[in-house]
């Protein structure tokens, strides 16, 4: 029997990288999944081969009506929602120091990474409460925990906001049996990192800091998400958990 048997999850950003890997792994663990992404074609591909256990929905987390539709799909198709997995996020390559990052990049990054996640909570958490409790999994980043000499300041600030919001959710909704935790992945080899890793100098400076000597893979993160989605984690609430090969522990 799978570790997520009987659970229904909404996973955002499910068309690529960690969201796609999470959708497919959650289904293998017995869950039903609403897989949401702004890229409809990509998320259709994610759910192909899941025998109807995962259903694709196209939409934008920054549009509240789209988010309401993601959540409604869970109740219409599967009758409930147990897990809200806020994974959709962007990193703009031109997002560097506060000295150079543009107004447009700040707005887009905060809109998707913070406001979009908040909309998913606004519409998803009442459904988790209705189901008698559940789990919110918010994807933050290790960059919210340590400074970085190759800055990505809008992204970093957005992920710091995700951790702060997670703690507020944990305290507000814990009494309703809804727990909220953040995962802080280190650098993971996904399409989000692809362009950055093409630059040998940018790649090397990051790799040199990782004690495990390799970049992470999507499944390294998804394994923790399975724990947080399952009943194994019913007393884990308000945590910001790193999965980073030791990068945030590395002084020199
Ligand atoms: P990815 O780029 O491979 O996938 C992100 C998905 O989100 C894409 O399918 C994209 O279409 C979707 N998306 C973007 N904007 C959206 C919107 N407005 N509405 C709905 N969907 C939208 O990225 P990934 O590396 O798998 O990242 C997943 C999460 O993990 C992100 O929140 C990211 O910030 C975070 N993260 C990534 C890394 C890394 O190194 N890859 C490290 C730490 C945290």
Describe this structure in words.
With 252 residues, this protein is α/β, with parallel strands linked by helices. It has a single domain, classed as Rossmann fold, CATH 3.40.50.720. Helix content is 44%, strand content 15%. The protein has eight helices and seven strands; from the N terminus they run βαβαβαβαβαβαααβ. The protein has helices at 17-28, 40-47, 64-78, 103-130, 153-173, 191-198, 200-207, 218-229, and strands spanning 8-12, 32-37, 54-58, 83-86, 134-139, 178-185, 240-243. Strands 3-2-1-4-5-6-7 form a seven-stranded parallel β-sheet, with helices on both faces. Strand 1 (8-12), helix 1 (17-28) and strand 2 form a beta-alpha-beta unit. Helix 4 (103-130) runs parallel beside helix 5 (153-173). It is globular. The termini are far apart. The relative contact order is 0.14. The mean pLDDT is 97. Nicotinamide-adenine-dinucleotide is lined by residues 12-13, 15-19, 37-39, 42, 60-62, 87-91, 112, 116, 139, 141, 185, 187-188, 190-193.
């Amino acid at each position: 029997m799978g570790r997520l048997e009987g659970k229904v999850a909404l996973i955002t950003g499910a068309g690529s990288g960690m969201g796609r890997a999470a959708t497919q792994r959650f289904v293998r663990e017995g869950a039903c999944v609403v897989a949401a992404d702004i890229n409809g074609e990509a998320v259709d591909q994610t759910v192909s081969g899941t025998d109807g256990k995962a259903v694709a929905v196209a939409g934008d987390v920054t549009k509240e009506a789209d988010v309401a539709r993601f959540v409604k799909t869970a109740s219409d198709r599967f009758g409930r929602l147990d897990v809200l997995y806020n994974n959709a996020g962007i990193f703009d390559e031109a997002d560097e120091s506060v000295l150079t990052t543009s107004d447009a990049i700040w707005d887009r990054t905060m809109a998707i990474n913070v406001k979009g996640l908040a909309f998913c909570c606004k519409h998803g958490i009442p459904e988790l409460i209705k189901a008698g409790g559940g789990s919110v999994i918010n994807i933050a980043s290790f960059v919210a925990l340590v400074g970085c000499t190759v800055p990505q300041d809008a992204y970093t600030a957005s992920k710091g906001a995700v951790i702060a919001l997670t703690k507020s959710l944990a305290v507000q909704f814990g009494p309703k049996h809804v727990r909220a935790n953040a995962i802080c992945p280190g650098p993971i080899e996904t399409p989000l990192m692809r362009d950055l890793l093409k630059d040998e100098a940018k790649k090397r400076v990051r790799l040199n800091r990782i004690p495990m000597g390799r970049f992470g893979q999507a499944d390294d993160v998804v394994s923790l998400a399975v724990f947080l989605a399952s009943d194994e984690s019913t007393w884990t609430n308000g945590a910001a958990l790193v999965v980073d090969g030791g990068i945030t522990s590395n002084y020199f």
